[in-house]
Predict the 3D structure of the following.
Amino acid sequence: MSNEMEYRNLGKWGLKVSKFGLGGWATYGENVNDQKIVNQIVRTAYDAGINFFDMADVYARGESEKMMGKALREFPRHTLVLSSKIFWPLSDDVNDRGLSRKHIIESVEKTLQRIGTDYLDLYFCHRFDPETPIEETARALDDLVHQGKILYWGTSMWSSQQITEAQAIAAQGNFYAPVVEQPLYNLIDRKRYETEIAPMAEKFGMGIVTFSPLASGFLTGKYDDGIPEGSRMARLEWLQERYYQEQFLKKLKSFKDFAENLGISRAQLAIAWVAAQKTISSVILGATRVEQLQENLEAAEITITREIDEQLQQIFPANEE
């Protein structure tokens, strides 16, 4: 493992995660089906000092957990911080979804089996479940901590109000409280995180591990000349609707010129900017190729000065979402 990677505490908690993590969303088991390639990418990440690997049961319906799990098994377990998530339906069965006690207890077993580990370091509630009382969810997750099947639990894409309620219920019931939130955050998607999530995380001492620092490739220049066939945006219509807009395409030109003047790629600049923001514990990267991961990891060398930050905030104002 590299000693050059920076490790940060997960909020106020003792667990340390690498500044960059590797995630499996919309890649492994979907458009990367070769186990050898997944092994190489995971090995490259680990050798670069990444200790945080982020998965979810719904990613490629369990295949992502299996492929990443297989690749991760060659490393000593204590050197890894492994996370997975629960919420989305995995079958047509009425109980195979949500955050009920039944679904949580059954799902964690399947996830552990697919990954090939005895415990998860982090277990995320992938979305808020309006059909299940937070108390039921918090109590079930507290039980899993006591059983040693998970060490910490967190939330992903919850509102500050929902997280605040979970914190209060945990305190009231003397349950383990959520210690981490995983929000969407990048130069385009700023407003919700900066106005709502970051202040809440500071208040409770929660860690923040962000996903999609490149707005699903949009900030890299991949979509400058249209939407390539087979790309993530071609596969996921909601992404296209979110980012492929005239107002954002115009900003990409200024962003491109600015990154070129600095002598770095747009991807490196976008990743470095997210990692430099206050309260961020780790930035989750996605990669379909070793070279792509290596290039993006070079973002670790970039210092975001006040001038660079001001310029980027001018190109992508937080109030323009």
